[in-house]
Write a structure and sequence with these properties.
alpha+beta; about 35% helix; about 625 residues; Rossmann fold; single chain; 3 domains
């Protein structure tokens, strides 16, 4: 009996051994190297990497280890550890640090790093101006704007193959990017001249488009006052790319080459901290200036507020009485150290502008660009904002339009227009959403507004719906004042009768201050009903081209008010109004609309395919 029990025990032991030998835990795969060689390969990792692997393992709690052992696939882990693709310690050391750790640690090997870059660009939310009934609100007031950054930023996005977000689109900055050759004032006694023109709206035959144009006095280059410029350059780590610091340095070189011995240039930088690279230097010392620009390199965090304080201090140190005193801030606007609150940064600039030093902002780069901050800092600093996407754009802003960029001929410029409810039923201001003013702000000289540089052109467009015409969008109030409808608006407004000629469609007011004054001056002009041209072909090229740019900005935002007027119509309208295009900007615009049309068609097809796929699923 004892012998039988012994035999049964031996048989059970043999069966257990056979089962254990055939287990996946111990069965070696074909061509599998010995475990000792695997351990040797792991042991050959650089010391610091091996310590990290060991530390990660020892820091796990017992429940974590048990849970990991339950969820792992032992065979898969075995294969990952012993695969022939394991590399030598020299090859691992040549790879990125995290790569070597992932290859050595089977748990980290399952982790996939993100391949898509994160878009952190920042734009202020805006809603398009609504249609307003003139009988209820006859007065419209706003500050002028000469910024152009929105247009060039959108141009960058379109060229990159993507449709821009709606909040990045500001219609007035699209329109004001172009020069419309408005009549200029004869002398600087009156710093600018007003022009108005009216004709049919290209996208709505039932409405009238009112074009208000302002042309600043042009000053010859030889008569430009001496300049005290402080270049404030962001050299933080976020600026480390060719389209940021690389392009910025070339842009500053273009500007430096335009200055003479009477001008002064300083160069300050900021990253985690701020510092002076170049003390105030005469503009004719080109080698010293260009050498300082060439030495700029990027690295570190971004303390923009410290840099701004330093720049104002340097500008005041080299202040030129009756000259141009301006800081040129060049950055992507990604402030992340020190004062980063938006309102605090604005308040800082508003406090400093009292010193007589203006602030111009130049935007660069993609991915983390802060358009909202760049635009508002320039507004608060009595300056202007441009986005530099190419060296050609730097040439336009800092060379061809240098006097407009640097030399202010009028400040706190405001426009107010009062519509005659007897003639205008409804109106809509195109753009200037973040420039609107309260009615009482127009006469208040304490309220800040926009500046105009020498030679600048400013354009504002209103879409008007006349009384007695179809297409009005708002029903009149049931208990409102009954508007007496004038005779002959539809059929006789071009008859030339004395009564019609005396009728005013609107009354235009404009306030401005001379750069060295604190009291505003008022300019007034009536807008006559008879001035409306009844055929679009009779309007000027500048009227039609401005209308095409306005239409483009609206269609990009979804075309709420442009009906079926599309990119093909915009191209036709702009091409017919191209006229004199010395620098090629209008031709470039037409090509940009063509590219947008192609991108939109592809985007529409993609959306249609997605809808079809969802339909099939249901």
């Amino acid at each position: 009996m004892k012998k039988l029990n012994l035999n049964i025990t031996l048989i059970l032991i043999m069966v257990w051994v056979l089962v254990a030998c055939n287990s996946p835990m111990t069965q070696r795969q074909p061509n599998e190297p010995e475990q000792s060689s695997v351990n040797q390969n792991i042991g050959n990792l650089p010391k610091d990497q091996h310590q990290i692997n060991s530390r990660n393992e020892t820091q796990r709690s017992e429940p974590q280890k048990k849970q990991a052992s339950k969820t792992r696939n032992p065979t898969a882990i075995k294969r990952k550890l012993v695969t022939p693709s394991i590399q030598s310690s020299e090859e691992l050391a040549a790879k990125p640090y995290s790569f070597a750790i992932r290859r050595a640690d089977p748990v980290l090997a399952d982790i996939r790093t993100a391949q898509e870059s994160v878009d952190r660009e920042n734009y202020a939310h805006t809603t398009q101006n609504p249609v307003v009934r003139a009988e209820e609100t006859p007065v419209s007031s706003f500050s002028i704007d000469v910024d152009t950054g929105s247009y060039t930023n959108i141009r960058r996005m379109i060229r990159q193959g993507r449709i821009p977000p709606k909040d990045a689109i500001r219609a007035e900055e699209f329109i004001n990017y172009f020069n419309y050759q408005y009549p200029a004032p004869a002398n600087k006694t009156h710093p600018f001249m007003l022009s108005t023109e009216m004709g049919p709206t290209p996208w709505n035959p039932n409405s009238v488009l009112l074009n208000i144009g302002i042309k600043g006095f042009e000053i010859p280059k030889t008569q430009r006052p001496a300049s005290n410029l402080v270049f404030l350059v962001d050299v933080s780590g976020s600026m480390r790319s060719d389209d940021k610091l690389g392009l910025l340095k070339n842009a500053l070189k273009l500007l430096s080459n335009q200055l003479g011995p009477q001008d002064k240039i300083s160069l300050a930088v900021y990253a985690g901290a701020s510092g002076v690279v170049l003390e105030p230097t005469p503009g004719d010392q080109k080698f010293k200036i260009l050498n300082a620009i060439d030495k700029l390199y990027a690295g570190g965090s971004t303390n923009g507020a410290a840099g701004i304080r330093l720049a104002y201090s340097m500008a005041q140190q080299a202040y030129i009485k009756d000259g141009i005193n301006r800081i040129v801030l060049a950055t992507d606007g990604d402030f992340n150290v020190g004062t980063v609150n938006f309102e605090s940064l604005k308040n800082l600039v508003e406090e400093k502008r009292i010193s007589g030093v203006s602030l111009t902002t130049l935007g660069f780069g993609t991915g983390n660009f802060n358009d909202h901050l760049m635009e508002q800092l320039a507004d608060a600093g009595n300056g202007n904002y441009s986005y530099i996407d190419t060296l050609n754009e730097a040439q336009k802003v800092l060379v061809d339009e240098l006097s407009s960029t640097l030399y202010t001929i009028a400040k706190d410029v405001k426009i107010q227009i009062e519509f005659n409810p007897q003639i205008v039923a409804e109106y809509r201001l195109i753009g200037y959403e973040n420039r609107k003013l309260k009615r009482e702000d127009f006469n208040n000289d304490k309220i800040d507004a926009g500046e105009i540089g020498a030679g600048h052109t400013v354009t504002a467009l209103y879409e008007l719906f006349l009384v007695g015409r179809p297409g009005q969008l708002i029903d009149p109030l049931r208990y409102g004042t009954k508007t007496k409808q004038p005779t002959g608006i539809s059929s006789e407004m071009h008859s030339g009768s004395a009564d019609i000629d005396k009728q005013e469609l609107a009354f235009l007011r404009l306030r401005y201050k001379l750069p060295d004054q604190d009291t505003s001056q008022l300019v007034k002009a009536p807008i006559k009903l008879l001035a409306i041209k009844n055929n679009l072909s009779k309007t000027s090229d500048r009227f039609r081209f401005a209308a095409s740019v306005a239409a483009y900005s609206q269609v990009l935002r979804g075309g709420t008010y442009t009906k079926n007027f599309g990119y093909a119509d915009i191209i036709t309208l702009a091409h017919e109004a191209k006229a004199n295009d010395a620098f090629g900007y209008r031709g470039e615009f037409i090509n940009l609309v063509r590219l947008t049309q192609s991108l939109s068609a592809g985007d529409a097809t993609q959306q249609q395919n997605i809808v079809q796929m969802k339909t099939r699923q249901f």
